[in-house]
Fold these 2 entries.
Entry 1:
Amino acid sequence: MIESLCVKVPRPAGESTRKSLIELHLLDNNLKIKSNKHYIFIPVSKPIEGLGELGTEFFEIAGHENPMPPVSGAYELIGDIAIIDQHEKNPLEMANVLLKHKNIKTIFQATSAVSGEYRTREVSFIKGEKKTETIYRENGCKYLLDVTQVYFTPRLSTERMRITAQVKNGDTVVDMFAGIGPFSILIAKTYPDSYVIAVDKNPVAIKYLRENARLNKIKNIEIREGDAKNEIKGISDADHVIMNLPHSGFEFLDSTFGIIKRGGIIHFYAISHEADLFEGLTGEIEACARKAGLQVFSLDRRIVRPYAPYQYNICIDFQVSSQVI
Ligand SMILES: C[S@@+](CC[C@H](N)C(=O)[O-])C[C@H]1O[C@@H](n2cnc3c(N)ncnc32)[C@H](O)[C@@H]1O
């Protein structure tokens, strides 16, 4: 056994945290990941902020068994569809290895980055069953989606758990950019006495969101199709507002200040450079709040996942003060 620095996360967050650590080149592959009833302990080569609790533990040296055939190259697995990174040079070679896994049926390669208002990406078919719809399971919920027509990434599963853990039964939660519903449905299912208002502008995402509410037998959800600025008008006293539109959240912040209750929490996502992950954004949020006659203070600031070289998808949770300024 060897003592090592590690990241400790709740069990359901283990796999996505492991993937984030691989992307950050921080996973210590020489040691075996270990777990207890509630937590996974992942050995890391350097300290990392924002992915879980840092600590030290004793680990066994890793063996060579590997349940997945080794795939050299980056890909994302959504249900039984694998999407190979657009920069990979040998997609067919990767597809041949991936299709040996019994749970993988279809292989695409991304041909564009996630882009546009609906945050979708172009893909080209490589091999396997020709289909774009799949069912993805996460945190005890299932989601039907079309990988070419809606935004979805499994890499936010830890984040969805983290936000859900902050909600209470009885809360009103507004998910302004809900997509096919992975935040909304998990929250509504976890807290049957909460009330979730889920908004998205993409009609196809809304179609799947409705279907996913049915699949997961969710009743305490109201689904609204359209621009979040218009669709949230008239809401008052939200306890939590989730703003998962990292490239343009600031455009909507003013509207959000109109619906959040004093003492309520806004979960604000952004893309940030490693040179200034949080300070600049926090200052901008505070300035925006002052204009709305509000005072805010941040409760938590964390890296959600790496986004591009030197850039990170981050989240700032901030609370609106109950004091009037
Ligand atoms: C980054 S995705 C997040 C989706 C979802 N929260 C998730 O975790 O999978 C952003 C979503 O915002 C939606 N969107 C973009 N602009 C919007 C707007 N003005 N009003 C409402 N939704 C919008 C997109 O269609 C997309 O589904």
Entry 2:
Amino acid sequence: MRHAYRTALVTGASSGIGESFARLLAGRGADLVIVARRAELLDGLARELVERYRVAVEVVAADLTDPAQRAEVEGRLRTDPVELLVNNAGYGAFGAFAELPLDDHLAQIELNVTALVRLTHAAVPGMVARGRGGVLNVASMSGFAPSPGSATYGASKAYVASFSESLHAEVAGKGVHVTALCPGFTRTEDDVPANLLWLRRDDVARAGLDAVAAGRALCVPGMQYKAAFPALKLVPRPLLRAAVNRMWQQAAETR
Ligand SMILES: NC(=O)c1ccc[n+]([C@@H]2O[C@H](COP(=O)([O-])OP(=O)(O)OC[C@H]3O[C@@H](n4cnc5c(N)ncnc54)[C@H](OP(=O)(O)O)[C@@H]3O)[C@@H](O)[C@H]2O)c1
């Protein structure tokens, strides 16, 4: 599906799924603001997209866990409105909860939750006033199941999915689309074929962009994950907990 967003701000555009969002949006003619910490990667991407697609691309090098740097991005969203905000920047620290430093847990919440809420809060009032806009929030399938070994990450993505669905309902009648994109395992390198477990980043990004353009609350990309999604709700929770815990323990032992 083609979307009609003419301007977009993409966080975490320096690599992975966020880079795919930027490439796809530029290919469809959107002017971009791309945000991440690694300025040199953003600069290289911007040069390439300007040359290839003749769109305007502005680079904002910012650490979204840093309140001052984040405030600049929020300010931009308030005063220089974009039609589509893609809250993609996110990370997971993996390991037993008690063995990881507390700061690792808090940094995940700061990026995956606080930054996402703050940027959304900066963008949505203007979108509602204009009667037009989209917010695409990258959650994860891990938000729908217990996540031993990545408890804080899973909980942060559960927050993103729930928050996005509620906001979707609030603003749906106002011309603003809010969508939670919930990928399963996604290869972040290029030229990797999709298989039963792994999705390709371009496919994930494309599915998300199509979903927000269509005004869908939730997007689970990939046939295999679409099929597994209802089963997550049907499997008795104690069984699900035991299964994912066994997987995590085995993965930890083989490390
Ligand atoms: N890959 C998967 O299997 C998968 C599955 C489900 C959901 N997701 C979600 O998809 C999103 C993208 O992840 P990815 O897999 O594409 O990972 P990635 O390649 O590591 O990309 C993460 C992006 O976020 C940026 N970022 C990280 N910390 C940041 C910070 N403090 N401030 C600003 N930007 C920051 C990174 O750029 P800099 O390092 O340059 O700052 C990078 O551009 C995340 O929200 C992730 O949770 C991924």
